[in-house]
């Protein structure tokens, strides 16, 4: 029988979280607050800027930021080596920070709960000897934005919350410090929300056998709220392991060392969001040749239930329309995060930490933006992807996170300890 004790879970919270949202950030209806939440201005010193122009100032003061997310509440959430930070969109109000060990991904559901992927120290009784394991965990946090009393409403700890490892024997088999398959070597790398407030988690790790009951480490997991007497609770349970994604052999339907997962449900919030359960994933293995490192996985309803299929349509690449494509073999080297724009543009953004670049695609997989009105009918998509190693306004060092809100792209520029912002210009020649 496994006995668990969660350690390191004492978090010092600022007294400000006990106040209401308006008392912290002001009412979103007054003129002062409208000015505060101005997205910023493009640097007037920049001339003849094509594509994405820096929105200054960039935000510093982080410790290797690795993810950024703009929530349905329109606040900005950033994870770094300190934990998770809450910011307003102009970074003018004091930041709010919750310290979490190993925080590396953050998202928000439509009920405004925050989910943070991090680590937790958990003590297990191993043959009468208390042994501490550092395990991947996802924290579900209510009212981080100050709308009420801050509360940790659920904590998912792996392997215990993996439904395919439901028995004590299966869990114990993965909690062995002398084994290369020790669950301490498993990571939750990404979180994204669906329209019904379920979440997908991307996971990677060393054990990827396909001939066992347990789901492979390299996979996508779905969690939904537990219902009691027909009423949804705050607690989450693992309802699906998407085992149709091959964990070791790259293809159009694989999950080789996943670094990110992104759904098509994202702010700005609309009256009705898609109930499509399709998603995007990024494969970040450095030891394998992977032609297609960013994949679009379609969720399709069949007579046998929901199945997950490859999106072969993205292989049809019209070079008369564009010079770059999402499914261009070898396009990426080490993609670390993906974001979907959620507006009428339906852009897909990818950051690559190896090329130190931000890439922008349309939903048909073509790279770039449409040519301006009045352009020649044969004009191709205009490339607006950019990057390169450095600390300049359009350079990055190991970018690890990307988000989008109201025409502004946010990049967690890890090596430069900053959140960079960019806005698409229309000054194309």
Largest sheet: 5 strands, antiparallel
Number of domains: 1
| Average residue pLDDT | 89
CATH structural fold name: Neuraminidase
Helix percentage: under 10%
CATH C-level class is Mainly Beta
Low-confidence stretches: 1-37
In DSSP terms (H or I, runs of 4 or more residues), the helix count works out at 3
Instruction: Using the 3D structure, state the CATH architecture.
Output: 6 Propeller
Question: Strand content of the residues, in percent?
Answer: 35-45%
- From the alpha carbons, calculate the radius of gyration and give it in angstroms: 22 Å
User: What is the straight-line distance between the termini?
Assistant: 69 Å
Note the overall shape.
Answer: globular
The string of secondary-structure elements, in order, is EHHEEEEEEEEEEHEEEEEEEEEEEEEEE
Number of strands: 26
CATH homologous superfamily (4th level) name: TolB, C-terminal domain
Derived from helix and strand composition plus strand pairing, the structural class reads: mainly beta
Summarize the structure.
The chain has helices at residues 21-25, 31-36, 168-174; strands at 4-7, 41-42, 52-56, 67-70, 76-80, 83-87, 96-99, 105-108, 114-126, 129-142, 151-157, 187-193, 199-204, 219-228, 231-241, 258-263, 279-283, 294-302, 305-310, 335-340, 348-352, 357-361, 386-387, 399-405, 408-413, 418-424. With 429 residues, it is mostly beta strands. It has one domain: TolB, C-terminal domain (Neuraminidase, 6 Propeller).
């Amino acid at each position: 029988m496994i006995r668990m004790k969660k350690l390191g879970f004492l978090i010092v919270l600022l007294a400000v979280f006990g106040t209401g949202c308006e008392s912290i950030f002001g009412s979103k209806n007054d003129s002062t607050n409208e000015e505060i939440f101005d997205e910023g201005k493009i640097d007037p010193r920049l001339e003849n800027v094509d594509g994405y122009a820096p929105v200054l100032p960039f935000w510093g003061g982080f410790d290797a930021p690795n993810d950024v997310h703009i929530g349905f509440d329109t606040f900005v959430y950033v994870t770094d080596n300190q934990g998770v930070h809450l910011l307003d969109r102009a970074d003018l109000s004091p930041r709010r920070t919750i310290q979490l060990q190993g925080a590396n991904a953050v998202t928000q559901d439509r009920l405004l709960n925050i989910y943070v992927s991090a680590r937790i120290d958990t003590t297990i009784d191993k043959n009468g000897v208390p042994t501490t394991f550092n395990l991947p965990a996802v924290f579900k946090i209510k009212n981080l934005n100050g709308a009420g009393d801050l509360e940790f409403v659920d904590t998912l700890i792996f392997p215990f919350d993996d439904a395919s490892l439901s028995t004590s024997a299966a869990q114990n088999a993965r909690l062995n410090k002398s084994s290369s398959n020790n669950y301490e070597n498993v990571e939750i790398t990404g979180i994204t929300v669906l329209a019904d407030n379920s979440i997908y988690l991307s996971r990677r790790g060393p054990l990827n056998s396909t001939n066992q009951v347990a789901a492979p480490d390299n996979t996508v997991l779905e969690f939904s709220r537990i219902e009691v007497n027909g009423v949804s609770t705050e607690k989450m349970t693992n309802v699906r392991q998407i085992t149709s994604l091959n964990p070791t052999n790259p293809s159009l339907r694989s999950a080789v060392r996943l670094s990110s997962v992104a759904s098509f449900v994202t702010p700005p919030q609309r009256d009705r969001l898609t109930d499509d359960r399709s998603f995007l994933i990024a494969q970040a293995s450095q030891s394998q040749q992977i032609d297609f490192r960013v994949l679009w996985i379609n969720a399709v309803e069949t007579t046998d239930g929901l199945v997950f299929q490859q999106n072969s349509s993205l292989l049809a690449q019209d070079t008369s329309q564009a010079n770059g494509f999402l499914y261009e073999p070898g396009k990426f080297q080490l993609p670390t995060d993906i974001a979907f724009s959620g507006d009428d543009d339906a852009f897909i953004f990818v950051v690559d930490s190896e090329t130190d670049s931000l890439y922008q695609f349309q939903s048909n997989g073509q790279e770039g933006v449409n040519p301006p009105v009045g352009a020649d009918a044969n004009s191709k998509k205009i490339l607006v992807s950019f990057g390169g190693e450095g600390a300049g306004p359009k350079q990055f060092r190991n970018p690890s996170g990307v988000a989008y809100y109201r025409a502004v792209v946010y990049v967690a520029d890890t090596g430069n300890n900053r959140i960079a912002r960019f806005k698409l210009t229309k000054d194309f020649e």
